Structures are given as C-alpha cells and as structure tokens.
Amino acid sequence: MKLFTGPLSMFGAKAQIALLEKGLAFECVMVPFDRDDNYEPRHPEVLRVNPKRQVPVLIDGDVELFDSTQIFEYLEDRAPTPPLWPAGAAARARARQLELKSDEVYFPQVVKLFGLQHDMQSPAALAACGACARFHEDLDRLLSDRDYLAGSYSYADIAFYMAHVFADRKGAGMTEATPRLVAWRDRIGARDAVREVVGAMMGFLASEGRPVPAFLQQHLRT
Description:
By secondary structure, the chain is of the alpha+beta class.
C-alpha cells in the first residue's frame, strides 16, 4: 500500500494514523509542499486518482481511493482487527456521524481562522472560536460516561483529534471549561500511532520556523 499525504495535511494524517493503528504495512509518500502552504507541484499520482487534486490518496494494488473517510471504510473492511468502528449498527452510525461532524461541522470553523490570524478579535474570528468552543462543550458532555467519543476508541477519535490539532494551532484550542475533553485529548495523544504522526507534523512546523503550540510541544519530533 502507498499513502500519498503531505506534511500539514489533516486528512492525510487521519489516514496515516488509521493505517498505523491497524498495523498495516504501507509506504508513506509525502508530496511537495511550497512556502505558500500549497501542495505544489501536484504529485502526478494524486492528480491521476483524485479529481479534487488533493491528498490523501491510498493505492492498494488495483484499489485507488481518495477522501479520508472512504479510506477509513476500506481499511475497516480490509483489516477488521483491531476494529476502529464500534460493534452494532446503531453504535457505528453514531460514531460515523461524530467523524462527519469533525470534518464537516467543526473543521470548517477552524478553516475560517486560517485567514484571520492577523485579527483574532474580529467578529468573524470570535464567531468561529465560539462555534469551536460550543462543539468542545458538546463533546465534553458526551464524555461524561465514557473514555472515547463513540464508546470504544474509533475513527471518530482520530478525526476529532486531528481537527483539534489545527484548531489549537489557530487559536481555538480546548480550555479548562471542558476538563473531560482535555483528559480525552491527553489519552488520545499518548497513543503510539498518534504520537508518531503528530510528532512528525510538529517537527515539520518547527523546521519551518513556525510556532508549535504548548499543548503540542510534547509531540515534537524532528
């Protein structure tokens, strides 16, 4: 298997963590990344497989996939053990919805902050940070009777952890207002697969002279 990803690809990191958690052998291909935060020049295999021209792309023999969630589903079918979706249709549906919310509800608020770092007190930045904080509060309540977002450790945890890495970098990190979520963050961050992937990402940031938030210093790997 080959996974095409990038040094600051949140969605690529999701797929990479999942592959490591599954214990699958794969080659990680880091595509070019320019100083303007663009993946240029575009890797020819990424262009060939993904009409959206984005990483991650997974190639496994004649199976060629893009989109981190589709990669999750393929990995679960290909290597059911250890399971990364919970047992039971209802529990899996809830976990899938949490993963979707991380990507499609939470992370778009984080993306808004990318272009607002110069004015974090603007109405737009405050609104995005407020939306992230409310999301954190919802998850903190969810964790009142469990250690992981969907009960057992799952793709939902991987997805939100990586989304939060970017939220923290952009000024919308967790606070003491959500202690259960902070404990969850530390629990996920202690996993070997997560430390390997996030550590390399933070090492890349440091090598570029970019700040690494305090919460992520423990992951720093050069």
